[in-house]
Amino acid sequence: MTLLRMDNTLIVVEDLAAAKAFFIELGMVLEGETTVEGPWAGKVIGLEDVRADIAMLRTPDGHGRVELSQFHTPKAVKSEPEHAPSNTLGLRRIMFAVKDLDDVVERLRRHGGELVGEIAQYEDSYRLCFLRGPEGIVLGLAESLS
Fold first, then answer.
1. Alpha carbon distance 109, 101 (integer Å)
2. What is the pLDDT of residue 82?
């Protein structure tokens, strides 16, 4: 087997500061920020004249990462409705395990977060919800009840 791990998930955003604040409020830790540009960057992603700011955030346990990227050139393009429903093809959400789901939802609401549906309980195991954040980013949040 050659796969070692999943390193990160990239989310392209228009407002890097707002998206970064949202994920930091969730509890992610900012690992670093940089600007990437030049021919080498374009070769990797198949674009020309690339210039983008990047923020890398990690989960507190150090195993998961989210990379946020704001393109200055070429400008980012929208590929679907801003508030696509959960059954839209493609990447729909990132799921996080949290403590005190109600508190997390309340804190994220102060950063523009909105429940997609409602907080639901699955048997005696979990409380779950989907929350839409800045730029339509959807998080799944799960609180273990055991």
1. 12
2. 77
